[in-house]
Amino acid sequence: MLKVSIIIPVYNVAQYIQRCIHSILVQERTCCDIECIIVNDCTQDDSMQIIHDMLNDYHGNIQFVICHHKVNKGLSAARNTGIRRATGDYILFVDSDDYISDDCLKQMQKGVDDYPGIDVILGNAYSCKYGQPFFPSVSEPMLLSNANEILLKIYFAELHFHAWNRLIRRNLLLDNDLFFVEGLLYEDMPWTYRLISVMSSMLVLPYNTYIYEDNVNSITNTPKNRMNQLVFSFCYIINFILDNIRKEIRSDSRIYCFAILLRTIDMNCQFSCSKDMIVKLDLVKYRLIREALLSGRLLLSLFFMTSLKPFVSMYQYPFIRRNYHKVTVLLARTERFIDRVF
Question: What is the spatial distance between Cα 342 and Cα 340, in angstroms, rounded to a whole number?
Answer without folding.
Answer: 6
